[in-house]
Specification:
With 432 residues, this protein is mainly alpha-helical. It has 17 helices and no strands.
């Protein structure tokens, strides 16, 4: 572990800064949209731009990396992301913000792909599981810390946008100063969607629905809280608890899924998520009752934390479940296809959720989440009547952030052998 940190601390530091900027940006834009009196539909449309860009970027970035290399792609898109957030503070409107969010999504998936390719190049069969674990902790911890930056400036001012730009620019430094030779980029071919569906219909459909859930969850939670008249501190606390609770629960729930029928674990987790989302609705309705009838926000926080504990590990569970039905050599290809499917769902999530909120009120946010969690659970119950679970000894749960790219999926110790990093003069000059 110490060797991993000593060799890759600079890259982890850079990604930590980037995720702080990302976490801060998502919360800031949600709160600012409420203050600018964007309609719920306009806000949902604007927020969906990020996932549209992420989806587009995932298809075009491998071509760019192959043509110009990792370092240039990383530098270019980190610079673009740093610039784009500043434009949010001077060009204000749902349509222009949607376009800016599309560009941000393209930039972020580019950065993820480069960083994860570089980590892969540093990984060996002995340490890649540890590298992936550290990477995941950095991703969620950075995101959670960034959400607290809301407390240090007024969302109505331009200073928060400058801070996000600074954090994004700082993330450039570790990559650009390293003397280590850039890794050779490998294009990863995904399995066809039809092949993945034949292997695991439940995995494919669950990935689609869960993408819809998680994109709405992380983009509109701050909007929901701001519209419910939460203080800036409360908004930052709510978003922080969501990210951290889900990150902490990945490993225990994953261990349970390795010991028992993984499909049943997914079904129980998704129904439990729906239940705790319903509890959050009940708690939110109690907070503003008159006098002694009102409850404090603690019950809402607890409901949200328990929801996150059950819901956030689901992408990793779905990936592991799909791997249960395919050979080891196709794990990465199947993962790339699932990430593609997740992205298709994620593009529609914020806009569809805003429609729910516009029709039934602010708690339409949780009703939307409950609805799609129930769809996953009901389809899972149906699949249990169609096919028995199989025992694939090569398949195991590996905790992964939902932002993972195909290059990051290769870090999983379950995907098979990878070449040991070559000890050349380039790799020994300095660490990354």
């Amino acid at each position: 572990m110490n060797k991993i940190l000593s060799n890759s601390w600079a890259l982890f530091l850079g990604m930590g800064c980037l995720m702080m900027a990302y976490g801060f940006q998502g919360s800031l834009l949600g709160v600012r949209a409420v203050e600018e009196e964007f309609s719920l539909l306009a806000t949902g449309f604007m927020m969906s731009g990020y996932f549209t860009g992420y989806f587009i970027g995932a298809k075009i970035i491998p071509i760019l990396i192959s043509n110009v290399g990792h370092v240039r792609v990383f530098a270019a898109f980190a610079s673009i992301a740093s610039l784009i957030i500043l434009l949010h503070s001077v060009l204000i409107g749902p349509l222009i913000w949607f376009i800016l969010r599309v560009i941000t999504g393209i930039s972020m998936v580019s950065i993820y792909t480069v960083a994860e390719s570089w980590l892969n190049d540093r990984a060996s069969n002995k340490n890649r599981g540890s590298i992936l674990s550290i990477y995941m902790v950095v991703i969620y911890a950075g995101m959670g810390i960034g959400m607290f930056f809301l407390n240090f400036s007024n969302p109505s001012d331009f200073e928060p946008f400058i801070l996000i730009s600074v954090l994004t620019s700082v993330a450039l430094i570790p990559i650009l100063l390293t003397k280590k030779k850039a890794p050779t980029f490998k294009k990863i071919k995904a399995m066809s969607l039809g092949d993945v569906y034949k292997a695991s219909p439940f995995g494919m459909i669950s990935a689609l629905f869960y993408g819809t859930i998680q994109s709405a969850l992380f983009t509109l939670l701050a909007v929901y809280a701001a519209s419910m008249n939460f203080s800036i501190f409360d908004i930052s606390l709510v978003t922080f608890l969501l990210a951290i609770s889900g990150a902490i629960s990945q490993w225990p729930i994953g261990k349970i899924s390795d010991l028992y029928d993984r499909r049943k674990v997914i079904i129980i987790s998704t129904f439990a998520s729906a239940f705790f989302a319903f509890c959050a609705i009940l708690a939110s309705n109690q907070m503003y009752l008159p006098g002694d009838l009102a409850s404090n926000k603690g019950w809402f926080y607890l409901s949200l934390m328990l929801f996150s504990v059950c819901s956030l590990p689901m992408f990793s569970l779905i990936l592991a479940h799909t791997n249960d039905f395919i050979p080891k050599e196709k794990f990465v290809a199947a993962g790339a296809s699932l990430q593609f499917t997740f992205g298709m769902g994620a593009m529609s999530g914020p806009f569809l959720c805003s429609i729910f909120m516009n029709i039934v009120g602010l708690n339409g946010f949780f009703i939307f989440i409950i609805f799609f969690h129930l769809l996953i659970g009901l389809f899972g119950l149906y699949r249990t009547t169609i096919r028995e679970v199989v025992d694939n000894p090569d398949s195991q749960f590996v905790a992964m952030p939902s932002t993972i790219t195909a290059a990051g999926i290769e870090l999983s110790p379950a995907v098979g052998s990878i070449e040991e990093p070559q000890k050349t003069e380039d790799t020994q000059v300095t660490s990354i």
